[in-house]
Design a protein that fits this description.
By secondary structure, the protein is an all-alpha fold. It has 2 helices and no strands. It has 2 domains: about 90 residues; about 45 residues.
């Protein structure tokens, strides 16, 4: 009986140790689950914040893009206006009396040069004919 009682006590002690070990493992498991849950919640919050930040950046970039497109359109309009003004100014200058006079002056200068050339040729021919005439008289 004593032996059985001792065995029973020993088995009871082993069971108690096992139970304590199981309780300890359950506590560790609960602690790990809690820690993993906390980490997961932190990661989820981080993902949400990252998504929110990317959304804000996307919105800001779209706003900047719209602003840039508006600026581009404004500059295109200004460029077209400047081109029109330049074209009109160019026409005005080309058709101005001063420009017409310049063109006429240039044409007259060309005519003068041509006439001088002809006069020089005529003088040369005259001198040549004169020398031939003098030779013929002699």
């Amino acid at each position: 009986m004593d032996q059985l009682d001792a065995k029973l006590r020993q088995k009871a002690m082993e069971l108690q140790k096992r139970e304590e070990r199981i309780i300890q493992l359950e506590e560790e498991l609960k602690h790990k689950i809690t820690e993993v849950s906390r980490q997961l919640a932190g990661k989820e919050e981080e993902v949400i914040n990252t998504k929110k930040r990317f959304k804000e950046e996307k919105t800001a970039l779209e706003h900047d893009k719209k602003k840039a497109n508006t600026t581009i359109e404004d500059l295109k309009v200004k460029l077209e206006q400047a081109d029109k003004k330049f074209y009109n100014y160019k026409l005005e200058i080309e058709q101005s009396p001063l420009n017409v006079l310049r063109n006429e002056l240039a044409q007259r200068q060309i005519d003068v040069v041509e006439l001088e050339t002809r006069a020089n040729q005529a003088n040369e021919q005259r001198d040549e004919y004169k020398s031939k005439y003098v030779n013929l008289q002699q």
